[in-house]
Amino acid sequence: MKCGSIVLGLVLLTLSISIALTEKKIVCYVGTWSVYRPNRGSFNIENIEPSLCTHLMYAFFGINEDGTIRIIDPYLDLEENWGRGHIKRFNELKLHHPKLKTMAAVGGWNEQSHPFSVVAASPTLRQRFIKDSIKFCKKHNFDGIDLDWEYPGQRDVASAEFSASRSYDIPRVSAALHFINVMTYDMHGSWDPYTGFNSPLYSGAKDVTDLQQQLNVNSSIHYWIELGAPKEKIVMGIPSYGRTFTLVDASVNGVGAPASGPGKAGQYSREAGMIGYNELCEKFLSEKWDITCNDKQLVCYATSGNQWISFEDVKSVAHKMDYFSQMNLGGVMVWSLETDDFHGVCHDTRYALMSVIYEHIYGQSPPLNNTTTATPPPSGSSPAPPGGCSPEGVFPNEEVCDKYFICDSNGRRFDFSCPAGLLFDPVLALCNWPHLVDCDL
Fold first, then answer.
1. Which of 20, 76, 247, 294 is 20 to 30 A from 38, comparing alpha carbons?
2. Rounded to whole angstroms, what are the CA distances from 132 to 95, 101, 126, 225, 417?
3. Is the peptide bond before 258 cis (omega within 30 degrees of 0)?
C-alpha cells in the first residue's frame, strides 16, 4: 500500500530483479515498521509464515543520490548497538525453507522519485548502484533487489495507463527484469472527492469516462500486456488492506458518493484513509456494519454512519485468483502480510487471504501448523516450560520491566532480557530508554 496525497487512483508498480523461477510466484511484502504497532497489530519476524510465499520482500530501504543503498531504521534492521537484527532474522527463514527467495525492497512512495532520477541519469552512478546492490545482498544474505521507483518522470498523474507509459519503457524494462509487480490497487482513495473501490476487478456502472474505465485490475493488466510485457513476467497485485472515506452525507453512501476526506484510522495501523483486513474483520465482529458487494466489479464496501470502506475479503481474493488463472500470469503479489488476519482472530485459520491464494495455486491448504519460525532475537532467550501461551505476539514480563516474552504460533513462550540500561516498551514492543517507558512494576 502506498500512502500520501496522490491524484485519482494510480496503478503503482515495482520492478523486481531476482533469480527466475518457472513456478507461479507468490510475492509477499512485509512492511517492517509494523513491528511498532500496538497489541495484536505488532508484526514480528516470528509472525511470518514462509511457506505461504515464494518470494519475501523486506520493505523498505532507501537510495542515496550517490548510488548507494541506505538503511532507514538501523535499530530495527541491524544487530549493532543492541539492535533487533530484523534483516538477519528475516533471511534466516531460508534455513528451514531453502526454496524461499528474500529480496530487499528499495524505494517506496515515501522515498520520493528524485534520488532514483539522479542515479538513473548518470552512467557512473548507475554502475555504483549495481555494485552496491550486489554488495548489500551478499552482506545481508538477500537473493535480489526490488526496485520500487514511483514514478519515473512524474508523481501526480490521473491515469493508470498514462502512469505506466509515461514512466516506463515497458518493452525494454520487461527484457531486463525477471518479473514485474503490477500494483493493481489504490485505484481510489481519500485523495478522491468521492468514494470508490481500492482494487476493483472490472469497471463499474459509475465508470463513464475513459479515465474511470482504466481504474481496475483488468484494464491495467491488459495495458501492460498490450505494451509488450510478457504474461509470464507479470505479477498481479492484491491488497490485504482497504481504503476508507468519510461521507459528506451518511444517507448518500453508495459507490461514487461525495466524500470529505479519509476515514478513521484503524486500531493498529493508526493511519487515516486505510485499514488492514485484520483491523476491519475485528470491527465486523464487534460493530454493526452494512456490507454491499458489487457483482460486476467483484469487490465489496462497508458502511457505518459516515464511514465508508472499500475492502478485500476471501471471496474477492478468490475472484482475483480466478482472473489470474484465466490470464495465465506469472504470479501474484500481496501488500502486505502484516495486514492479513495473521493471528486467525476472525477465521479458523491464520492468514485467511493468503490461504486463498496458496490454495488456488497449489490446490491444497497451506501447511501453517508445520512452519518453523526464524531464530528469535539474540537477547539471551530461552523457551519457558510448556503451559500454553496466547495470543501470538510480543508482551511485557509480568514481574519486571526489563524483560519481555514472545508467544509463537505453536503456543510456546520465549523469554528475553533487554540490554543493560533499557526497559521493555509495551506500546512499541521493543526495548527503549527508561524515561520513555511507562512501567509501574
1. 247
2. 25, 19, 10, 32, 35
3. no
Q: Which residues are catalytic?
A: 150
Domains parsed from the chain with CATH numbers: 25-240+314-362 (3.20.20.80), 393-436 (no CATH)
Task: Report the 10 Å Cβ neighbour count for 333.
Answer: 31
Can you tell me the distance from the alpha carbon of 338 to that of 340, in angstroms, rounded to the nearest whole number?
A: 6
Per-residue pLDDT tens, the chain, 441 aa: give them.
Answer: 333 222 222 344 566 655 444 589 999 999 999 999 999 999 999 999 999 999 999 999 999 999 999 999 999 999 998 889 999 999 999 999 999 999 999 998 778 788 999 999 999 999 999 999 999 999 999 999 999 987 665 444 434 554 565 567 889 889 999 999 999 999 999 999 999 999 999 999 999 999 899 999 999 999 999 999 999 999 999 999 999 999 999 999 999 999 999 999 999 999 999 999 999 999 999 999 999 999 999 999 999 999 999 999 999 999 999 999 999 999 999 999 999 999 999 999 999 999 999 999 999 999 985 333 444 444 444 444 445 677 777 889 989 999 888 876 667 787 778 767 778 888 777 777 787 788 887
